[in-house]
Design a protein that fits this description.
Order of helices and strands: HHHHHHHHHHHEHEHEHEHHEH
CATH topology of the largest domain: Rossmann fold
Shape: globular
Number of strands: 5
Largest sheet: 5 strands, parallel
Oligomer: single chain
Radius of gyration: 22 Å
Number of helices: 17
Number of domains: 3
Amino acid sequence: MNMDQPFRKGPGELLRQRQAALAEELVRRQFAAQPELARRYGAAGRGKCLQDANFHLAYLADAMDAGDPAIFISYAAWAKVMLGKRGIPAEDLARHLEFTRAVIQTGLGGEAGALAVEYLNIGLARLSSLPADIPTYLNAEAPQAGLAREYFDSLLMGERHIASRLILNAVAAGVPIKEIYLHVFQPAQYEVGRLWQVNEISVAQEHYCTAATQLIMSQLYSHIFASDKHAGTMVGTCVAGDLHEIGVRMVTDFFEMDGWNTFYLGASMPAQAVVDTVAQRHAQVLGISSAMSAHFGAICELIQMVRAHTACQGVKILVGGYAFLVEPDLWRKMGADGCAPNAQEAITLANRLMAEGGRT
């Protein structure tokens, strides 16, 4: 990635504009060239193939905007596991990406087409070496591993009340809430996502587990909001269209426990509403989370709006979430002040930025 060039929503925009037509054409070509696919997967399979084609193209466009093929490679790795666990071999994915490349060469062209083909070539070259499975996030050697396993198993069984009791009893026994967040809630949520990816739980189970964890987090608020407020003010949010709010909620709670006044705005917030809140609350820190690269453009626009607002001068902007783990330096191109991989490191980074008065 060229860190001298800012993130810009543009290189992938032409691909997005033509995405639907390109997806239709590549599926038509692939099923014409491989008639066995229709026999193997049927009409429903063709529909899923079209859906996958649109996902592939969307992530390719995100990588083009970011100027980093690693974003597309990360998606290809995720797709390889997800499809493989549903009976779609890696060879089919590779062939699909080859058809994608051919359709882009004839249907996109220009600099955008050349960049898309370059990234597809990189992805295809790496595909065979990407893992076909991913290990569990519930590490038996990690802190609070026993509690994390019991908690996770309770959620999978649909026993939300048991999961809640486990957490409340642990806190009553002296386990710090920050440890609960970092070593129980976070790995459990990652494991829920992994099990959906490998086709071991349904999307309904995934949503149940997430909703249960959010409810149990709220049961801890009498402890979280009891701390003295001696630091600054922090606003935590997801951008418009991003519904994956649990991560930024955890980060906001950590700031609260660290003595900050916090304003948690939640999922899918319009950019102007975020800017207005930062200005009205005289916030020193804005935390933005993203689980998917599809929201990078919206994050960039929000950062630019904050920077342009006269009442927001000096606000430190931190970004984080699963999408930023792929390319940890992407925050620089977006114009943020820093990026943290978890809630505790976000606190450490914010405090350092406030002490230094500048970017890290």
